[in-house]
Design goal:
The complex is a heterodimer of chains A (about 775) and B (about 475). Chain A is an alpha+beta fold. In chain A, the strands form eleven sheets. In chain A, strands 16-15-19-20 form a four-stranded antiparallel β-sheet, with no helix packed on it. Chain A starts with a helix and ends with a helix. The longest helix of chain A has about 60 residues. Chain B has about 475 residues and is of the alpha+beta class. In chain B, the strands form six sheets. In chain B, strands 7, 9, 11, 12, 13, 16, 17 and 20 form an eight-stranded antiparallel β-sheet that branches. A three-stranded antiparallel β-sheet of chain B has the order 8-19-18, with no helix packed on it. In chain B, helix 2 packs parallel to helix 6 and helix 6 packs antiparallel against helix 7. The two termini of chain B are about 25 Å apart. Classes of the chains: A alpha+beta (about 775), B alpha+beta (about 475). The interface between A and B is large, with 80 and 73 residues.
Chain lengths: ~775, ~475
């Protein structure tokens, strides 16, 4: 009996030593939980009468772990997984921007503006101009590169999701296969511990991917739910899969299930965020916004400059003029066109230059995006002498000049504002003071008498004038010109002006009413007008610097000879009929000397005779903003950059092909760099649509965001990792193997074994003594 | 607390790793001298850094513009110095011609010399640097000055540039002019009176003239009508060669005919009485001021004695005779040359002789027109013998020349100012740049003192961690069993 006690002690000690050996050998195995043999004493086998105890029994093999702590570790793995996948994406974004450094966009901006500045100092150097274009091109290239890289990063996340799904599925399968082994080892005490360790380890890994829930059934098989969906049951498992919609956006599903997995955290969430847009698409939008505004600002200025070539023979809009609804664009108002930039209620000035005579005609076209249709606009442009506008086969606007003319959208003053000769021709001139519409009575007849001859009657009737009560000046002029009276009528600003066909001192002109009061309605004076032998040439120079469009009217105060008649004056009125200035053109005026009338406009009068009071005047149309409708930007006419955002911004190919089309001046002088100086001004300009910061400041802000996102994610990851490390340490405290501890245990059981052996020896000796008896 | 070897080694591993990465970071900061390598190193700092970079890039470009611009301005100034030298030698030549009594050959040499000087100055005024004409304003691809002959047959230098300046950006909101347009360098002064030098009797009218330099007014005789009942008529060359011009009575002939009508004496404007013997169909009669009329005396009435008024019409022209305007003897007759947009207001009321007037517009001389005028005056002085009048005219022209030369000098001074402005911009920009670099360095650069001491501290703690690892690693119960 006693021998049995000894044997039990020996066997138990051996078992314990085995366990210690197992612990020691697995001291560094990841996820290993130390095991302990539970010992219990064997009580008396002979009922209450016996006084003998029964030895020791090796009980169950216990796995030391802490389920609650483990759950927290798994949860924390998820947070760390999420942060680290976010951070790796952000790190890549940061690298893509390449700031601060020579590969970043800011360096391209600096190069571009430097080249512009350099061009301002030597505007006639072709190499400088080419440098500007080259740097503009590489700025655009860098934008596209940046946008493309960010784009690829997004699609890279889709790749990452596929990879992560495979890994998750691998883990799920392995957990499930261990479940099967666990089933087989049911009933074998202690046999499942190492399998569970392995599962825990896998679970920890799985935990980093998404929100998990797990428990074990009675026999210890692990059941796992990923995002509330069971992926591992006691006996089976389901894989997850990534599905991509048409735009390539991924969603996660259980295999064969339409139900979407609601992954809230972890690595998978990180990848989903990235693929969903996430930070890189935010940044891409930011960069798009910067590029969009850059295009608008530069094109706005470039389009209203004048190219060195002097003008264009043909220009094609960079954007197609189409409606988003697919309707024919021609009849639709302009604001229904699908354009990247807005058209404003304003004007467009087109300047046509006759290359032979150098005559300049600037025409202002009113643009109301809600009203003006594309066809109206095309018609109005085509109505200008020298240019034709139409849509090409691809619905791009095409403006072409007639041979011998060129055009541009620059801000110029008509150098010869008196082309009609109303002010300074030698003809006898009578002008109306009143503007259209005119209200006549049926039966009104005008008499026109030239050189004192017999009057020619002009009948104002409905055959020539559609609405007698609201006749236009053009209708009236047409009616007058339909009869041959020796005088010609023209329309100047809604007023009717008549001039004798033959100039000279002998020519006279009188307009009277035969019946009715038509002359008074037109505001034509009853006096007889005289022609002159000395016509006056008017020349306008300079560039208008005013803030808003202005029409200056010039009219003589008295009659006399320029540069001769004492006290001779010409009055300048603005469009509200306010006196702007009175020009002294009398005896002290040197004919041909420019007179400054303010706002950069200068007028010179040749010698000759001017006459007051007979409707002699001329207008100077001063345009402050040649493109106040912004239509050039919206259509992409004479652009520096084509495209609409960072993905497609590019240097206008036309400029690349022919650098002479670069609009560096506001005039055509080869060293005129005034438009370049305006472009340089963009650098400091606060752009309203960017929140009143400059384009580059906006970009700097984006870089700040990029940096902050990364820095914040990096700090979060560090914190989460610290927490994880702490939790892992605490779990390790419970389940980890301490070699010293195990050694002490070993010592303890070694001694126990020795003691048991000694006990058996003692029992043996006692028994021997007994046998010797 | 139960510490296992795993916990211990995992922790030490992370300490060592941390220490090493800290040292690596500090090393990188010290090695590169920069502490911001990526935006996340200091997001706000990066933003500031980018804006400093931008401004520094601007400043360096402004400075480059100023340097480049200054070389351009200085080249312009050097050219003007050469112009100035030529003007000085031209002046010497002029004085030589004016002072000494010189013969025609020396005069010819001097005229040639002046012509050479004029051409040289035009050449210098057309100086090009690269593709750029220095004195063409912003029309720098246009040859600005051309020597031409105008419609009245005079040499003239015309300007084809414009009046604009090339403005280079030399500051955030500052531009600096790099040129003075040729129209300002070789500029005329304030317009003064118009002067007529000639004997026709034409004088300045009332209005303002717009000619420049020296011009020529031609006065032609057209027709002479002899009034009265003396029987005197105009001679056969009268229309072609008479020089008298004037309304009725402004010229008169005194004639005394012998009773037979075969001879007599005759005088023009109380001039020398000359006898005549008929038949005289083309008698030349000269007045006291050199005016000339040709007469036919064959029909004179015998015994006639008295004064006969003449009426002589004339024409004027300011384009060398191409366009002729009848003289209306008014206090202001406006003459125009449409081709040149030229207006000349002439008081024609006292025109009494055909001939030509040298019209000079005081104050409107530039160096070209004054030199050309002087040269032409010298040439003309060789043709006639009126020395005192020639000298007076020359003196006037020299005064105009000196004034125009002064304007070249003042342009030279202004170029100096431009150059100084660019230079001071340069140094101001450099200064700004240094200051901005300082600010940038505050943001971007590694603070070496701090970094080095941090490095020392990190090294120490890293070494301590290593030492501890080694020490504690030795500690094991195994060593004692």
């Amino acid at each position: 009996m006693s021998l049995n006690i000894g044997t039990s002690a020996l066997r138990t000690a051996q078992l314990a030593i085995n366990t210690i050996g197992h612990n020691l050998s697995n001291a560094t195995t990841p996820g290993y939980s130390r095991q302990r043999i539970n010992l219990s004493s064997i009580g008396s086998q002979f009922g209450t009468s016996s006084r003998f105890a029964g030895g020791v029994r090796a009980g169950s093999l216990q796995r030391l772990s802490d389920g609650i702590l483990f759950r927290r570790v798994v949860d924390q793995e998820r947070s760390v997984g999420y942060q680290s996948s976010t951070l790796s994406g952000l790190n890549e974004i940061e690298s893509i921007f390449g700031e601060p450094g020579s590969s970043g966009l800011s360096a391209r901006f600096n190069d571009f503006f430097s080249s512009l500045s350099s061009l301002s100092a030597a505007p006639d150097e072709a190499s400088n101009r080419n440098a500007v274009l080259a740097h503009a091109g590489s700025l655009a290239d860098r934008f596209r590169e940046l946008s493309g890289s960010l784009d690829r990063l997004g699609s890279g996340s889709s790749q990452s999701i596929r990879g992560a799904t495979r890994e998750v599925n691998g883990i799920i399968a392995e957990i499930s296969s261990i479940n099967q082994q666990l089933t087989q080892s049911v009933g074998i005490p202690g046999s499942g511990h190492d399998l569970k360790d392995r599962q825990d380890l896998l679970l920890q890994e799985l935990g980093s991917y998404g929100n998990l829930h797990h428990d074990r059934d009675q026999v210890g098989r692990l059941r796992v739910k990923l995002a509330s969906q069971e992926v591992v049951s006691s006996t089976n498992y389901k894989e997850i899969e990534a599905r991509f919609d048409v735009k390539g956006k991924p969603t996660l599903h259980l295999e064969g299930s339409s139900h979407r997995l609601d992954i809230r955290s972890g690595r998978l969430r990180g990848f989903l965020d990235s693929a969903d847009g996430g930070k890189e698409s935010e940044r891409r939008d930011d960069v798009d916004e910067v590029a969009h505004n850059l295009i608008a600002e530069f094109n706005r200025i470039h389009s209203t400059g004048v190219p060195l070539a002097g003008g264009f023979e043909s220009l094609r809009s960079s954007y197609a003029l189409e409606t988003s609804t697919g309707q024919a664009p021609g009849t639709r108002p302009l604001d229904e066109l699908d354009l990247p930039f807005e058209i404003l209620d304003g004007q467009l000035a087109i300047t046509v230059i006759d290359e032979q005579t150098r005559a300049v005609t600037q025409t202002l076209i009113d643009v109301d995006p809600g009203e003006t249709s594309l066809n109206t606009l095309l018609g109005e442009i085509s109505a200008i002498e020298g240019v034709e506008a139409r849509l090409d086969a691809n619905n791009h606007l095409l403006i072409e000049s007639n041979p011998g003319s060129v055009f541009h959208f620059g801000n110029v003053l008509d150098p010869n504002p008196d082309a009609s000769g109303v002010f300074g021709s030698g003809s006898a001139v009578l002008g109306g003071d009143e503007s259209e519409p005119f209200s006549f009575q049926a039966g009104d007849i005008l008499n026109i008498s030239v050189n004192g001859g017999l009057p020619t009657a002009v009948n104002l009737q409905t055959s020539s004038i559609a609405d007698l009560s609201a006749a236009t000046a053009q209708e009236l002029a047409d009616a007058i010109n339909a009869v041959s009276s020796g005088a010609t009528a023209q329309v100047v600003d809604g007023r009717v002006v008549l001039s004798s066909d033959v100039p000279g001192a002998g020519s006279t002109l009188a307009v009277t009413d035969q019946s009715g009061t038509a002359a008074a309605t037109l505001g034509i004076p009853s006096a007889i007008a005289n022609g002159t032998d000395l016509p006056v040439d008017v020349a306008v120079t300079g560039a208008f610097e005013g803030d808003e469009n202005q029409t200056f009217t010039f009219e003589p105060v008295q009659s006399g000879t320029i540069g001769l008649t004492p006290g001779l004056q010409i009055r300048v009125l603005d469009q509200d009929q306010n006196l702007v200035s009175t020009l002294e053109v009398g005896e002290d005026y040197v004919p041909g000397d420019p007179i400054d009338i303010g706002n950069g406009v200068e007028v010179a009068f040749g010698s000759g005779e001017i006459e007051a009071g007979t409707g002699r005047f001329f207008h100077v149309e001063a345009v402050a903003e040649a493109n106040s409708s912004d239509i050039l930007v919206a259509f992409g006419l004479n652009s520096l950059f084509t495209g609409t955002n960072a993905q497609d911004i590019a240097l206008n190919q036309d400029l690349d092909d022919n650098p002479l089309l670069f609009s560096q001046g506001v005039g055509t002088a080869s060293s005129d760099s005034r438009n370049v100086l305006r472009m340089i001004g963009i650098r400091e300009k606060s752009v309203e649509s960017l929140g009143d910061v400059s384009i580059e400041s906006k970009y700097d802000g984006i870089i700040n965001r990029v940096g902050q996102d990364t820095a914040r994610a990096s700090a979060s990851l560090e914190t989460e990792q610290l927490v994880l490390q702490g939790l892992k340490n605490r779990l390790e405290e419970v389940r980890g193997v301490s070699i010293d501890e195990e050694l002490l245990e070993l010592e303890k059981f070694q001694q126990a074994y020795q003691a048991a052996a000694r006990f058996i020896q003692a029992v043996n000796e006692v028994t021997d003594i007994l046998f010797q008896i | 607390m139960r510490i296992t070897q795993n916990i211990y080694f995992a922790s030490t591993q992370s300490y060592v790793q941390e220490g090493l990465s800290r040292i690596f970071e500090i090393n990188r900061d010290i090695g590169t001298g920069v502490r911001i390598h990526r935006p996340s190193d200091d997001p706000a700092g990066t933003e500031r850094l980018l804006s400093y970079n931008r401004r520094l890039s601007d400043l360096s470009q402004f400075s480059a513009n100023a340097v480049q611009g200054r070389s351009f301005v200085d080249t312009s100034a050097t050219t003007l110095e050469s112009v100035n030298d030529i003007l000085s030698s031209a002046r010497e030549a002029i004085l030589k011609a004016k002072n000494g009594v010189i013969d025609d050959s020396i005069r010819g040499t001097l005229i040639d010399e002046l012509t050479g000087h004029i051409e040289d100055i035009v050449g210098l005024a057309n100086t090009r640097v690269g593709n750029r004409y220095l004195y063409a304003g912003t029309a720098s691809d246009t040859q600005p000055f051309r020597l031409e002959t105008n419609s009245s047959g005079r040499d003239i230098v015309r300007y084809f540039g414009n009046h604009d300046r090339i403005n280079a950006q030399i500051g955030p909101n500052t531009v600096g002019a790099l040129n003075i347009p040729g129209s300002e360098v070789f500029a005329a002064g304030q317009r003064g009176a118009t002067r007529y030098e000639g004997l026709t009797g034409a004088a300045a009218g009332l209005g303002s003239d717009n000619g420049v330099g020296v011009d020529r007014l031609d006065v032609y005789h057209v027709d002479t009508v002899v009034g009265g009942a003396s029987g005197l008529a105009t001679g056969s060359d009268s229309a072609a060669l008479d020089t008298v011009i004037g309304p009725l009575g402004s010229h008169s002939i005194s004639i005394q005919v012998d009773p037979g009508g075969q001879s007599g004496t005759i005088s023009l404007n109380d001039g020398e009485k000359i006898p005549f013997q008929n038949p005289q169909t083309n008698l030349l009669l000269e007045g006291p001021d050199g005016e000339v009329v040709y007469l036919d005396t064959t029909g004179v009435v015998g015994g006639f004695s008295g004064t006969i008024p003449l009426t002589a019409t004339g024409e004027t022209s300011i384009d060398g005779g191409a366009t002729r305007v009848p003289i209306d003897f008014s206090s202001n007759q406006q003459l125009r040359d449409q081709g040149r947009d030229l207006v000349l207001n002439v008081d024609t009321s006292n025109i009494r002789r055909a001939g030509h007037e040298t019209v000079s517009y005081e104050g409107t001389f530039d160096v070209f027109s004054s030199l050309i005028a002087i040269r032409d005056a010298l040439f003309e002085a060789g043709e006639n013998d009126d020395v005192s009048n020639d000298n007076k005219r020359l003196n006037d022209l020299i005064e105009q020349f000196d004034q125009s030369a002064d304007r070249v000098l003042s342009a030279l001074g202004r170029l100096g100012t431009l150059s100084n402005r660019l230079e001071s911009a340069e140094s101001r920009l450099d200064e700004l740049s240094v200051r901005l670099s300082g600010l940038k360095s505050d943001v971007e650069d590694t603070d070496f003192a701090v970094a080095t001491s941090e490095l020392r501290a990190s090294e120490t703690s890293y070494q301590a961690a290593l030492l501890l690892t080694a020490r504690v690693g030795e500690l094991s119960l195994l060593n004692f069993l």
